[in-house]
């Protein structure tokens, strides 16, 4: 049921959009890096919410995600995105049999009752093993309700779901989160990725730290060959960004060349 909230025109419209099927998903490939480019492979897809109104106009996530959070619709939006993402993953496994799905959790979802059970039930209903899913928690909000968040994430990790701290390196609480949260990996903040191949000192330190802690490290926002080459040489586990593939609503199999996943060809539609 919809929670009682203060009046919010955009949130009211979002509620109608969710009920009317206007909210869909786009998926962006996450590419595991091999020692050589030919060993690179798509191992997961991040699922992202998209809202296209009936008249064809789009509402950017930067507007409707905050509206969902402040109006109590984060759970419903999250459930919609997860369900559609799992449907898409089932189809994608025809060409990527081992691929997983990565989904963002809002802080409000972490504090809600029965969140872990709801997510695990959705996986079971889709015929997916828990290890097929990774949940991402934004570093800046990981501690809004620390005790409840740790309980939810701990239950998910115990069941086999991956738990990743997003935007790592951007927020002051990120280092503490590495100790406090039951993580399996981190995603570097774009501000760190932007320096790849130019000034790698912070990234080198971060990779050493995550390696010592047994956490997988993914660089987000990889846009240039220089950044991709630096990520590989520094031992970063995986990359994500427009160079490897933009988010798109109908994914095709990423193009593969003798040198690995072809940059810019993992998806062809702008997102």
Walk me through this protein's architecture.
- The protein is of the alpha/beta class.
- 38% of the residues lie in helices and 21% in strands.
- It has ten helices and eleven strands.
- It has helices at residues 9-20, 61-71, 74-92, 107-110, 115-125, 146-159, 174-180, 190-193, 201-212, 225-233; strands at 23-32, 41-52, 58-59, 100-104, 133-138, 162-168, 185-188, 216-220, 238-240, 256-257, 260-261.
- It has an eight-stranded mixed beta barrel, surrounded by six helices. A two-stranded antiparallel ribbon has the order 10-11.
- Strand 10 (256-257) and strand 11 form a beta hairpin.
- Helix 5 (115-125) packs parallel to helix 6.
- The longest helix has 19 residues, at 74-92.
- The protein is globular, with a radius of gyration of 18 Å.
- It starts with 8 loop residues before the first helix and ends in a 10-residue tail after the last strand.
- Mean pLDDT is 87; it is low at 1-6 and 265-271.
Shape by Cα distribution: globular
Radius of gyration: 18 Å
Share of helix among residues?
25-40%
Strand order of the largest sheet: 1-2-4-5-6-7-8-9
SSE topology string: HEEEHHEHHEHEHEHHEHEEE
* Number of beta-strand segments: 11
What composes the largest sheet? 8 strands, mixed, barrel
Number of helices: 10
Distance between the termini: 32 Å
| Average pLDDT for all residues | 87
Q: Name the beta content range.
A: 15-25%
Stretches with pLDDT under 50, minimum 5 residues: 1-6, 265-271
What is the SS-derived class? alpha/beta
């Amino acid at each position: 049921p919809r929670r009682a909230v203060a009046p919010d025109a955009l949130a009211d419209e979002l509620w109608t959009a969710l009920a009317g099927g206007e909210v869909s998903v786009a998926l962006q490939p996450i590419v595991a890096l091999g020692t050589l480019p030919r060993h690179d492979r798509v191992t997961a897809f991040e699922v992202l919410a998209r809202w296209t109104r009936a008249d064809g106009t789009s509402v950017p996530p930067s507007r409707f995600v905050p509206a969902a959070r402040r109006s109590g619709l984060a759970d419903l939006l999250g459930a919609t995105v997860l369900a559609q993402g799992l449907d898409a993953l089932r189809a994608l496994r025809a060409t990527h049999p081992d691929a997983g799905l990565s989904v963002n959790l809002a802080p409000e979802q972490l504090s809600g009752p029965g969140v872990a059970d709801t997510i695990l039930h959705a996986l079971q209903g889709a015929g997916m093993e828990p290890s097929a899913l990774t949940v991402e928690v934004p570093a800046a909000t990981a501690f809004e309700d620390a005790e409840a968040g740790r309980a939810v994430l701990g239950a998910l990790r115990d069941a086999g779901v991956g738990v990743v701290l997003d935007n790592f390196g951007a927020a002051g609480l990120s280092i503490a989160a590495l100790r406090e949260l039951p993580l399996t990996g981190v995603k570097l903040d774009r501000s760190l990725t932007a320096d790849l191949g130019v000034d790698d000192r912070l990234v080198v330190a971060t990779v050493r730290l995550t390696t010592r802690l047994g956490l997988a490290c993914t660089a987000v926002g990889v846009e240039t060959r220089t950044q991709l080459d630096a990520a590989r040489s520094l031992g970063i586990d995986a990359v994500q960004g427009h160079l490897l593939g933009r988010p798109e609503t109908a994914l095709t199999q990423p193009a593969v060349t003798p040198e690995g996943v072809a940059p810019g060809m993992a998806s062809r539609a702008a997102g």
